[in-house]
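User: Once you have settled down, look closely at the record that follows, taking as long as you need, and be ready to discuss the fold:
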Amino acid sequence: MFNDLDKFIRERSADSVVDEVDQILASYPYKVTIHFVEDHFGNNREQSLEIPQRISKLKNNTMKWVGAIRLERFYKE
């Protein structure tokens, strides 16, 4: 049933996500925290680390982010 499941997951680039957050901040400059709610956010470990690091640098390094991810996504054997 779940064979080739990876073919059904469309992933956005880190640039795309950060650009969207930047656009949101232009419309809502009082925002101080971004909350990620995405089932597949942790599928790409490198990207999952890059996005929050880049978002944290927005608004003169004061932007905060919140999200939930399963820890085994980041466990390396």
About this structure: The helical segments are 14-27, 45-56, 58-61. The radius of gyration is 14 Å. Strands lie at 33-36, 64-67.
